[in-house]
Design brief:
The protein is of the alpha/beta class. The chain has one domain: Vaccinia Virus protein VP39 (Rossmann fold, 3-Layer(aba) Sandwich). Helix content is 38%, strand content 26%. It has 9 helices and 9 strands. β1, α5 and β2 form a beta-alpha-beta unit. α1 packs across α3 and α4 packs across α5. The mean pLDDT is 89.
Length: 220
């Protein structure tokens, strides 16, 4: 049996971590080397795929965008490159947020503001504040279930555009498709579709943990 890579060991630890406090501890230790270590070693492209879907789907966006589970700020960095100018980030880890705060594009901070919050409960986000909401990596094992989306809908303005990356195995286990279809039936969201994209540059097509279902929809 071949020895597991550092990236595989780190990912297994992340998937096994349950609850807000355990996640804070994990990401506190992971923050300094997340981009230079895990992302490089694993060929991580998740953030690029989600941002591409978001920007391709919603070319006309008037208002700020919220990056959910922003981590070290790789999603915000990609959005800034594609012309998104006002981006806020929210994450449970102050260490990850410190890394995101250092991100710049064309000499300016990538993020307008960064919020430390536990998304399993109500946050301090203002009602109807965001025209766009995007997420890469937050909706995965041991982290956020579909009910979290209710808090994001509260923070979304009418017509706000969403692109939420959801780990495919987590997507199936927690029934994100049925939950979101119910929200559409209830009239809370519209234009719902799911797009399958790789999390890693050389994703195994038979391993759902290496793929994301990106839920694309609009708030009503």
């Amino acid at each position: 049996m071949s020895k597991k890579s550092d990236a595989e060991v780190a990912l297994e630890r992340a998937y096994a971590t349950k609850g807000p406090e355990a996640n804070r501890e994990l990401y506190a230790s992971w923050a300094p080397t997340y981009e230079s270590g895990f992302m490089v070693d694993s060929g991580y492209v998740y953030h690029q795929e989600v941002v591409k879907v978001f920007c391709d789907s919603f070319s006309e966006l008037n208002g700020p965008v919220l990056d959910v589970g922003c981590g070290t700020g790789v999603v915000g960095g990609e959005m800034a490159k594609l012309g998104v100018s006002v981006i806020d980030g929210i994450d449970i880890s102050p260490e990850m947020l410190a890394e995101a705060a250092a991100k710049t594009h064309n000499g300016r901070p990538v993020y307008r503001q960064l919020v430390e919050a536990d998304l399993t409960g109500r946050t301090g986000l203002a009602d109807g504040a965001y025209a766009g909401i995007v997420s890469s990596g937050a909706f995965t094992h041991g982290v956020l279930g579909p009910e979290t989306i209710l808090e994001l809908l509260r923070a979304a303005s009418p017509g706000a555009r969403f692109a939420l990356g959801i780990n495919s195995a987590h997507f199936e286990e927690f029934g994100f498709d049925h939950w979101l279809e119910q929200r559409r039936s209830d009239g809370h969201i519209a234009e719902l579709e799911f797009r399958l994209r790789p999390i890693y540059s050389e994703a195994d097509e038979d391993d759902p943990d290496q793929w994301t279902r990106i839920a694309v929809f609009a708030a009503v």
